[in-house]
Fold this protein.
Amino acid sequence: MTRYVMIADLRRCVGCQTCTAACRQMNGTPPGVQWRSVLDLESGEYPDVLRTFIPVGCQHCSHPPCMFVCPTTATRQRADGLVTIDYDLCIGCGYCIVACPYQARFKYYKPSYAYGTPIDNEIALRDARRDGVATKCTFCIDRIDAGIAAGLKPGVDPEATPACVNSCIAFALHFGDIEDPESNVSALLRENESFQMHAELGADPGFYYLWDRAAGKGEAK
Amino acid sequence: MNKMTSQAQSIPTYCYQCVAGPDLLTVRVKDGVATMVEPNFSAANVHPGGGTVCVKAYGLVQKIYNPHRILTPMKRTNPKKGRDEDPGFTPISWDEALDMVADKLKEIRGKGLVDESGYPRVAVSLGGAGIAPHYMGTFSAFLSAWRGPIDMSFGSGQGVKCYHSEHLYGELWHRAFTVCSDTPLTNYVISFGANLEASGGVCGVWRHAEARVRGMKRVQIEPHLSVTGGSSAEWVPIKPKTDAAFLHGMIHVLLFETPREALDVPFIKQMTSSPYLVAPNGFYLRDPETHKPLLWDTNQGRAVPWDTPGADPALEGSFTVSGIEIGADDEMWPHEAVACPTAFQKLLEFEAPHTPEWAAAICDAPAETIRRIAKEFLEHAEIGKTIEIEGRVLPFRPVAVVLGKTVSNGWGGYDCAWGRTLMACLVGGLDVPGGLIGTAVRLNRPARDRQGSVAPNPDGFMEYPWNPTDRVNWMARPSVRHAHSTLVPLAADSPWSQALGPTHLAWMQQREKFANWPDPTVPDIWFVYRTNPAISFWDTPNVSKTMATFPFVVAFAYTMDETNWMADVILPEATDLESLQLMRIGGTKYMEQFWDYQGFALRQPAVEKQGDTRDFTWISTELARRCGLLESYNKAINRGAAGPTLKGDTYDFSLDPSKTHSVEEIWDAVCRGASAEVSDGAETDGLEWYKEHGFKVRPYSRLKWYLFPTLEDMGLRYELPYQERLYRKGKELGNRLHERGIDWWDTQLTEYDPLPTWHNFPEMIRQGIARHYGNDAASYPFWLVTARSMQYSWGSNVGIQIMKEVADNIKGHNGVVINTGKAKEMGIEDGDLIEVRSAVRATRGHAVLRQGIRPDTLLMMGQFDHWVTPFAKDFEMPSINTIAPMLLELTDATGSGADVVPVAIKKLGGGR
C-alpha cells in the first residue's frame, strides 16, 4: 500500500510564503485562492512571546470529513491517500467547505485576475472547470501521476513532487509514502517529534508537523 | 527548436533581485508564454541553498505581463516638475529618445565634465546595493567609456538602509564588507536584530534551518519579534539603539567575571594588537629606529618591536618604557621611561564600569540575561578546539555575534561593530571555522579575492586604502556631492565607495548651505535605474522636491514610479526574464552566500520582449554609438566591464572596437571569456552553451571562506581592541576641516575614538531632533522602527500583485505594528486608523496589534507610501521614510543614519 503524506518541519519554516507563491503559479489559482499558505501565529504575552509559522492546506485526511458530506461523490479518496475533487461532479454546494476542519477548500463564482483583466500567464493556466466548484490542494496530483508513469519517485524526484515542496527554501516541506518504512517521510517521523493538526478530530490528516516540544517551537496554539 | 513556440520548456536563468543572491532558477514556458518559476534542480548540489529561489523570483512572471508596464520610450511634455505636476509623458521612438540623451551628453562633454563647483555634471543612481549592474547589461561599459567623473552620491537608501558601519569597519578589521556566522559549523549565535530570515536570502534561510535542526541556538535581541526572532530559540526585547551597551555588558562578563585563561589568550596575544603599548597621547609607543609599535616581551623583560621572533608579549599591565610616539600629521613625541599600558590594559580599564547591571538599566533587559548570554557564548566557543579544513588545521570556534540594519548604522554602529568583533577576538573566533567571518570585499581590492586583498603594513596589520587625510593629499574639494573622499577616510575610493559615503549630504546640500563648502549644484543629467529614492530614502517628500529641480532626468523604467515621475526621458528596458546577461556566481559574496563552487550563470530571455522594450545592452551600445564612444565602450567590455576579460594568455575573444555589435555577439564573447576563465583557458563555450546549461562552475576552496590562514601565513594581526589608526585619521581629518573653517562635521569627528565611549544613543537621536526643530523631545514618546520584508526588499517589485498577496500573510505588511497591551491602554483596537507623527510630519496607517513588540516601539515594515506606482499606490501602507528626518545630527562619522524615529501616535478612527 501507498499513502502519500506531507511533512512541515516547524523548526525550519520561516513563513516566507515561497511555497504559497509556487503553488499559486503551478496550479494557476486566482488571486487570493491559496491552496498552500503559511500562517503567522503568536502565542503568549509580552515579553514571553512565541512567533510560529505553520504551513497549511488540504491535509488529505484518511477519514476526510469533506468527502463524507459530499452529496455528489465529487470528493473521493484514492488508494494512495490523495483526496480528490471531480469538478464535473461537484455542484458547488459548499458542504465540504463547511465540513473541512482545516479551512482548506475554496470556491469562487467568477474568475479574478491579478490586475483585473487576464494577463498572458493567467490565460495560459486558466481552468474554467474550477469556476463555481470546490477546489483545494491536490498535492500536485498531476505531477505525481506523470512522475510515477515516468518511473520517478514522488518526494525524491522533483518532477514527481508537489511544487510547494520543491520550492521550499528552508527544506521544511517534505513529501513521500508513509507506508514505506524506508521513505524520507517515514525516516523524518521516526527520528523527530511530530503532531497532526487537530488530531483529536479523528480525521487522521496526511500532513505531519515536526517540532521541538522542549523548546516550544512550532507548537500549534 | 524555437523556444518561444514549442511545447513547455524550462529555461535556466538567474535571480539577483536581492544582494543575498544570485540564485538559480528555471522558467517554464509554454507556447511562448512564461507560466511559472521553479528552482533549478540541476544546481541543487552546486548552489548553497539547494538550487532554490526565494519568493521574490515567483513574481517575475507577473512582472513580464504586468499591464502597467511602460512599453515604449516617452518624453515629458510638461516642463514643470513636482508631485502635483502631471508630466504629460508622450510616446516617442527609440531614435528620438536616444538622440535626446546623446545630445545632452555631447553637450556636457562640450561644456566640461565638471561644473563650477567641481561636481560631475553626470549623475547616476542605481538601486539595490549592487543589484542593478546585473540587470543593466553593458551599461557599466558605457559608464566606463564616458571617461569622466560620474556622481553616484544621490543615494536611494545607502547609509540608512544598509549595514553601514559593518561595511566600513568590517573591511578595515577583517576584509568583511558583510559579516555572518559560519553557519554550517556555528553552534551559538547572538543576533542583534540581524533579520537574516528576511534579508539573508535563500542561502541564509537554508543554512540557518539546517543549523537549527542540528541544534544551533540563536538568541535574537531586538525591539520587535521579527520573522528571524520567531525562528530563534530566544527573544530579548531590547530598547532601540542600546545594543552597544548590551555588548559592553557581555564584554565585561568575559573580561571580569570569567578567568582570563577561559578566553583564547594565545589568539589575543598573537593575532590582535592587544599587547601593543599605548603611549601617553593615545598612540602606540614605537621603536625610534624602525617606528614599529612596541610590546612588552616577558622573556626579555623589555619592550621590543611587535614582530620580534620568540617574544612572549605581556597582555596586561603598564610598563615603564622609552620610545617615540607618532600622532596625527606626523607629530612626534619622544618618551623616556614613561608608563605605557598595553592596549588590552586600556580595554580593561575602559570596560570596567560596564557591568551587566549598568547595561541592564540602559537596555531594559535583565542583567542576568546579559550575563547568561555572555557565558553561554563563552561555553559554546570550545576554546582550544581545532578543525581540519582541506588538510589544514584551524581553530574551531562555533560562536558568533551578528548585527542587523539600524544596529549597524547611524550613531552606535561603530560601537556595535567594534563590540561584536572584539567578542570574536576574545574567544579566538574571528574569521575562523565556526566563528564570525566576512564574506566579500567591496572597498579593498581586488574585489573578487578577499585573501588576495591582504597586504601587510609596517604596524603588523592589513593595509587599508584610506582616503588621505594628510595636508598634501587630503581631497579638500569634494569629487562628488556627498564628499565621501573628503569626509570619510574609511570609505576608500573603490568603484563601490560612492555608495558608502554620506548620501544624506548629496540631498541635504541641495536645500541647505554648508559653511565653507562648494556651492550646491544639480547634475546636468541624472540617470536612474532600478531605484526609487522618492520612496526609499528619508524625508521623502523633500527628496521628491529636490529631484524635481534636476533639469534632465533619464529613467530606465518598468512602470511609472515616484522618481521617474520627474523624468524627462523614459527608456523602458526588457525585464529580468526578457533580456541577456552573464553574471559571476559562487565564491563568497554578501550575507550568507558561501559556495563550494564559483563560475558564471546566464540570464536569458525566456520569452519575447513585451511591447517596444529593449535589451539594456542594446540601449547601452546605441548610447555609446550616438555619443561617439563606441570604441572605448567596446574596449571596456574587452577589459572586463561585463564580467570576465575577453583576452587571456591563451585566448582572445575581444570585440572589434570599431564595430557596433549585436547583443548576442557581445554576450557570446563574454560567455567565451567566462568559459576560458573557469577552465583556465581550456574551454570556449559560448552563448548557446550557456542558454542550454545555464551555468558553468569550478570548485572553490573552503579554506577561502576564512581569513585566518592568510593572516597566520603573513604573520599579521587584527587591529583590535585599540583603534590607533582610526584615532589618527580622525585627528587629521579634524585638522584639515578646521583649517578650512568647517566645524559642522565636529560631532562626527567624536566617533574617531580609540575605544568607543558609550553615549546615550537614543537620547542623542531624540535630543538632536528636538534641538533642530525646537520642539519638546518628550512629545514623541515612541520609537518607530522598520524591518525588511523578504517579499519586497531590493526587488523593485512593489507593483507585483502576487508579492502583495503573499506578503500580506505575514503580519505587519498592512499596517503599523503596536504592542497589544499598549494599544489597549490607549483605546486602540486592531485595524483602527492611527496617526504616527514625527517632528517632521505625520503619516497614518491601520494598527496591527501584536504581543511581539516593546510597548515603547512601533514598527512599519518595508518601504511604502507610494503615490504614483500603479497597484502599490492603493496599499494605504505608511512608511517610516515619509516621516524620518534627514539631519546632520543623525549622521555618524561614516555618513550613515539609523531607521529609528521618535514619534507620537493618536487614534483617528475605527477599523478598515
